[in-house]
Amino acid sequence: MRWRRARAETRRPEKQPSRTRRRNSRRFTGSRTSPLIWAGLVIVAAIIALTVLAPWIAPYDPVAYQGGGRLQPPGNGHLMGTDQLGRDIFSRVAYGGRIPLVVAFASVFTAMTLGALFGWASGYAGGYPDRLLSLAMDSLYSFPSLILAIVIAAVLGPGLFNMVVAVAVVFVPTYYRVARAQALQLKELEMVAAARALGASNWRILFRHIAPNTLGPLIPVATYNVADAVLTAAGLSFLGLGVQPPTPDWGFDLQNGQSFLPSGSWWPVTFPGLMILLLTLGFAMLGEGVGDRMRPRR
């Protein structure tokens, strides 16, 4: 009887997981952060579409006086009112997003390229080059990012290209540390030793085996840094270190409108500041979602 019972138990089918357990498992391993990613994409795409379509959406010339009066509140033909020079604020908001977007994307791409190249070479080479580069990057990383960008922009002078350089230098150490840490781990793997044994050069090993396997951790960092770059670019424009007037720029318009707050004119500050907040929030949500998506889970 005992052997019959054991034989029956071996033939018994395994218990299938319940529908609730399968649903919870899919909820844990599935697209848990997809709403966050989609929300960030919608906000960023809407602002990019506004700036790209500004020549067709903006009702007025953003740098010309419209004759409707200065510091007019929203309404009466001006959706967001007029500024201290009688210019339409909505038109300037639509055109003004081009400067922070260009600076953010260009500076992050430049910083990621330079930081990754330095990090790969430093981590793979080791020795004194690694120590010198690490010391230099740690020195840059120790400064507050906004203060360092202000110093670089003040030395180079105002202008779009100088803003890109100033913001890019701030973020280079971040990518350097990530790329260096990955290169230190990958160069000890068997695939690198096998490639070296087959006679592959250091450059081939670096760009064929190490570099492609370190791009994954750099993507979430880049998405996070775009949001920081938008704030840094707005801060430089607010301090007069960005593009020169009368070019529309959210940070510059924010600086011009703050002096009219005591008199009750809130609209010259509110709408450019709201656009900076929305763009930063969109990139932050996108970065949080992408980082959570690419983070390994059990």
Give a quick rundown of the structure:
With 298 residues, the chain is mainly alpha-helical. The protein is 71% helix and 0% strand. The longest helix has 28 residues.
Structure overview:
This protein has helices at residues 2-11, 19-29, 34-52, 54-57, 89-96, 98-125, 127-142, 145-156, 160-186, 190-197, 202-210, 215-238, 250-257, 267-294. By secondary structure, the protein is mainly α. The protein has a domain at 98-247: MetI-like (MetI-like fold, Orthogonal Bundle). The longest helix has 28 residues, at 98-125. The two termini are 43 Å apart.
Q: Could you give a short account of the major beta sheet?
A: none
The end-to-end distance, rounded to whole angstroms, is: 43 Å
Assign the CATH class of the domain at 98-247. Answer: Mainly Alpha
CATH architecture verdict of the domain at 98-247:
Orthogonal Bundle
